[in-house]
Design a protein that fits this description.
The chain is α/β, with parallel strands linked by helices. The strands form 2 sheets. It has a 6-stranded mixed beta sheet, sandwiched between helices. β2 and β3 form a beta hairpin. α5 crosses α6. The protein is globular. The two termini are 13 Å apart.
């Protein structure tokens, strides 16, 4: 097992997204996952029924103890819920985590439509967390909220990714699964020197997988990328491996639940390469 990933995110009682998906993905890719739980949710494949936030100082304490003892080769954030939580995560990262690349998955709204980030926290996400990120991984609705743009095409995705990059992160992977069409396009834009990237733009294209097993896809992808970075992969190889892993997990989905079903994170019993 190589690579330590500290994950700061919410818990999913249904096991398909959040901390549970994060840990499954990191473990399947032969890395070690530690956690700071930022919120508890009562949810299943149909949606989120309730959110119980964890006090910010307790989130920070979880981070501090993990970083002081186990350490981290990459840090990944998911659902952070409030501006106070974002500030605490940023504070601890600045003090103890700066040597580890930060992957920010800006979780805002659940698959079923429940709001997971308070509206007033969007400014803290933009101004506090994004400038520290090695990589930000928004989907289209999240990118629209962060940029104020309407994103209805790949060209609009490219413009939005460029705008997000101007907010300070070293790389942006804008995921295109919400656009219609038989092909899904993700847009990567990087600043020079971003985890081995030379700077510029790269498109990742794949045929759409027709499935209802889409619960936790964003969490899984971001954590899989973080695992790659923790293991010393450069950014583009880490993204390419994570996308392959995600697509296989979708194809092998167990068919559980009656809504947006979970993935099969354990579809491989060997280190995924």
């Amino acid at each position: 097992m190589k690579g330590r990933v500290l994950i700061i995110a919410g818990s999913d009682s249904g096991g398909g997204a959040g901390i549970q998906a994060d840990l499954k993905a990191v473990t399947a890719l032969d890395a070690y996952g530690a956690t700071a739980i930022a919120a508890l949710t009562a949810q299943n494949t149909r949606g989120v029924a309730a959110v119980f936030p964890i006090p910010p100082d307790f989130i920070g304490r979880q981070m501090e103890l993990v970083l002081d003892d186990i350490g981290a080769d990459a840090i990944k954030t998911g659902m952070l819920h409030s501006a106070e939580v974002i500030e605490e995560v940023a504070r601890v990262y600045e003090r103890l985590g700066r040597g580890a690349p930060l992957v920010v998955d800006p979780v805002m709204v659940a698959k079923g439509g429940a709001r997971l980030l308070e509206h007033q926290a969007e400014g803290a996400l933009r101004g506090r967390l994004l400038p520290m990120a090695a990589l930000v991984t928004p989907n289209i609705p999240e990118a629209e909220a962060l940029t104020g743009m309407v994103i209805d095409s790949v060209d609009a995705m490219r413009r939005a990714a460029a705008l997000l990059l101007s907010m300070g992160p070293r790389a942006v992977l804008l995921k295109g699964g919400h656009l219609p069409g038989a092909t899904v396009v993700d847009v990567l834009q990087t600043a020079p020197g971003a985890a081995g990237a030379s700077g510029g733009e790269q498109l990742f294209e794949d045929a759409r997988i027709e499935t209802r097993a889409t619960h936790g896809t964003g969490c899984t992808l971001a954590s899989a990328i973080a695992a790659g970075l923790a293991q010393g992969l450069a950014l583009v190889p880490a993204i390419s491996r994570a996308r392959r892993y995600l697509r296989e997990a979708m194809r092998a989905a167990p068919g559980l639940g009656h809504g947006h079903g979970p993935l099969n994170h354990a579809h491989t019993v060997r280190p995924f390469s």
